[in-house]
Amino acid sequence: MNEEIVEKIAANTSSEIEIAEEKKLTTWLIFSIGEKKYAVRSRDVLEIIRDASVYKLPFMPPYIEGVMNRRGDPFTVINPRQLIGEEDSTPPKEPLFLILKRDDDQLSIHISDILFFTDMAESDLNLIPGNNDEGFFIGTLGYGGEEIPAMNTNAFENLIRKDLGFV
């Protein structure tokens, strides 16, 4: 009798684990650059900063706006508009930056506005076939009847390393 109960508990536990793995949720930060919406996994964002000064650097590619001081540490500021073809038709009202969570580099992305956070199943991400961490987008998220491009934060670091001769 006890063995039957233990077997049923084990069977229920394993099926609950399988269901949880199927519905594994990822929190996404939805933000805007100009008039367009974009998404990034919230685990890739360390902090959101407003009103920071950006100091220009000479001889940098045009997508590098400069560096900003975050608690005494310099962070490279990337202007993704230069990379993804977004026009500067609506400049941001105030400086707003996503500080990316990186193990080996200090990067930030200049954005226009934070819109919202949402939890979505990883299966809701429509991956771009053949994308090998080089493209700026990993896929799209379907939300509210629209497809929101999901950014590949690794691509920014890869491009900087390539353009500055570190690869």
Description:
By secondary structure, the chain is an alpha+beta fold. Helix content is 22%, strand content 43%. It is built from three helices and twelve strands, in the order αββββββαββββββα.
Query: What overall form do the CA principal axes indicate?
Result: elongated
The share of residues in helices is 10-25%
User: What is the residue-mean pLDDT, rounded to a whole number?
Assistant: 82
**C-alpha-based Rg, rounded:** 20 Å
Number of strands: 12
Structural class: alpha+beta
Main sheet record: 6 strands, mixed
Low-pLDDT runs: none
Helix segment count?
Answer: 3
**What pattern of helices and strands is seen along the backbone?**
HEEEEEEHEEEEEEH
Strand content: 35-45%
Main sheet: strand order? 3-7-8-6-5-4
Distance linking N and C termini: 64 Å
Provide the descriptors you would attach to this structure in a database record:
167 residues, six-stranded mixed beta sheet, three-stranded antiparallel beta sheet, 12 strands
Nutshell version of this structure?
The chain has 3 helices and 12 strands; from the N terminus they run αββββββαββββββα. The chain is of the alpha+beta class and 167 residues long.
Show the helix and strand layout.
Elements: H1 2-22, E1 25-33, E2 36-41, E3 45-50, E4 54-55, E5 64-70, E6 73-78, H2 81-84, E7 96-100, E8 107-111, E9 113-121, E10 125-127, E11 137-143, E12 146-151, H3 153-163
